[in-house]
Amino acid sequence: DVQQDACLVPGPLSPSLSSAVAPVDITPSEQQELGYMPCRDDYEREYDNEAESLISQLSVGGPEEDELETALKLAQVDMYSRRLRERMRRKGLVRDYRLLEQFCHAGRPKASPVGARSKRNLREADRELQEKMRIFCQFQSAAEHEQLLENLEREKELKARIKELLRYRRNGITKLDECSEFDVARHRREKRKEVKKKSAPANSVHKKPISTASKKYEEKGGVDIILNEQGDTREDSKEATDITSLPGYELLSDKEKKLCQSMGISPACYITFKTVVLKDQAQRQKGSIAKFRSPAGLDKSHCRRILNHFANSGWISAN
């Protein structure tokens, strides 16, 4: 009855104020080596083990003690409380992140399910990020830190996806259904580049003649042309592909259809380049000069052929 009444009475030493400590998954021999006492959740040698020396010799309430001595002793008790809180904080981090188990199980072979293995492999790929973010473990719980790492990985994936969508947009792709066709065409184009680069000798590069209109237009800064790996060495006969089923084909004239067919570029890419050039021509007529970049995938020879077509059609001027 006395023990039951003691448990019901709240107080600074009441057993109801303390909660049971989660068991630690280490063997008794490992506990003995570490000096860990699991029932008390203490160690033979704690962090800041000499902290108790601040108050071990204190005695409060002596007959000759004045207010200054009392304030000094209370300050020592406060210093001890701060050091004790730091010790408890570190012990809490050890329990929360299960550092004892990780230290003792480091050399043990441990079988894990497939899901856990794939998750660990994912962490191996982002080891550098984990090392950089480890300093924030002391300010977060284990669950919060894990959520932070997952959010950072998700952010990285979203940025990569946004970059990919922007690349589609620069090439005139506005629908997700067209992305697969664009990727297939780009893969084929890259394969042709590799085959041509291996088969063609290094000294057999022949440049095509450049018309006066397109040359002057480029020199005036109308379009900032992006060169690909092949430069001017692409042959139109090898680039001919069927573009009749691609979106935007019906918007082209007969000459434009033949031009795109001979160069092997998509109608959407051609329309995007045409829009950029015509807008630039309109700005130049107003007196302002601005540079634009052609869509990725067009090499220099193709850009010049398109500019020649624009000049012959009277859409741009060579002056």
Automatic annotation (TrEMBL):
It is found in: Nucleus. GO terms for cellular component: nucleus; SAGA-type complex. SUPFAM superfamilies: Homeodomain-like (SSF46689). GO terms for biological process: chromatin remodeling; regulation of transcription by RNA polymerase II. Residues 250-317 form the Ada2b tri-helical domain. Residues 190-209 are annotated as: Disordered. InterPro entries: Ada2b_C, Homeodomain-like_sf, TADA2A_B-like_dom, WH-like_DNA-bd_sf. GO terms for molecular function: chromatin binding; transcription coactivator activity. Residues 34-105 form the Transcriptional adapter 2-alpha/beta-like domain. Gene3D superfamilies: Winged helix-like DNA-binding domain superfamily/Winged helix DNA-binding domain. This is Transcriptional adaptor. It comes from Amblyomma americanum (Lone star tick).
